[in-house]
């Protein structure tokens, strides 16, 4: 599955609709908002859900376990969509089981996953295969992960579940602020064409590609999804005058 991000900016409804029309069926978003009342906390996310309420979309939601309250889950149940909850901090058996008890898939941070945690989860969870994994993105240049590290983390995950879903980020066209330096998982792809970046991610074992930035140019979006779905894409050859 190929996904794009909707993060921290006014909704570009036309862009989001175009991406869905291109065949993108997953959106990465976040509800990690500073302590606010529920009405404010869910307003931005709710606008996105309402915009796409008639579309078949899966949401990968970055969230702190502290906001995963009964009211949050009740909010999700109002929509006919698929939801996955990614928890980064405060990862525990209890937090994961609480998410799964709601009938939702839980997604863990693949960039910092350890053998100890995976072993513990494999032994204690009723269904380990309901876990998926998502690497971090790195806004600051020279802080992204190496190819070798991503490869090793993915190999470790596959030892516990050979069919695991592992997500990784590539850079878009409209670079997200405040640094505007791209949001890749692998540092070597920070200035790469999306298809080149996606291919490198896949070579490390990443199975699902996410566009980290808030915008990807439509021609590149089409090339990327064609590559990820069909292993081919169309090149545009310009002619100098």
TrEMBL record:
InterPro entries: Aldolase_TIM, GH, MupG, MupG_N. Residues 12-224 form the 6-phospho-N-acetylmuramidase N-terminal domain. It comes from the Bacteria. This is Outer surface protein.
């Amino acid at each position: 599955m190929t996904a794009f991000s909707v993060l921290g900016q006014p909704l570009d409804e036309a862009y989001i609709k175009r991406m869905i029309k291109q065949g993108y069926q997953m959106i990465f978003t976040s509800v990690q908002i500073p302590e606010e009342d529920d009405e404010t906390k869910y307003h931005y996310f709710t606008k996105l859900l309402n915009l796409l309420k008639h579309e078949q979309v899966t949401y990968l939601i970055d969230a702190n376990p502290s906001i995963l309250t009964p009211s949050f889950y009740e909010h999700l149940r109002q929509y006919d969509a698929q939801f996955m909850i990614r928890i980064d901090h405060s990862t525990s058996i209890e937090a994961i089981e609480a998410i799964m008890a709601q009938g939702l898939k839980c997604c863990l941070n693949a960039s910092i996953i350890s053998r100890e945690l995976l072993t513990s989860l494999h032994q204690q969870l009723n269904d380990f295969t309901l876990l998926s994994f998502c690497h971090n993105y790195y806004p600051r240049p020279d802080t992204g992960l190496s190819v070798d590290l991503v490869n090793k983390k993915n190999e470790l995950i596959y030892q516990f579940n050979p069919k695991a879903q592992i997500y990784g980020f590539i850079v878009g066209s409209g670079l997200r602020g405040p640094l505007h330096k791209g949001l890749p998982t692998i540092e070597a792809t920070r200035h790469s064409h999306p298809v080149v970046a996606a291919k490198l991610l896949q070579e490390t074992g990443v199975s699902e590609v996410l566009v980290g930035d808030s915008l990807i140019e439509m021609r590149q979006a089409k090339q990327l999804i064609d590559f990820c779905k069909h292993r081919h894409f169309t090149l545009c050859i310009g002619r100098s005058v």
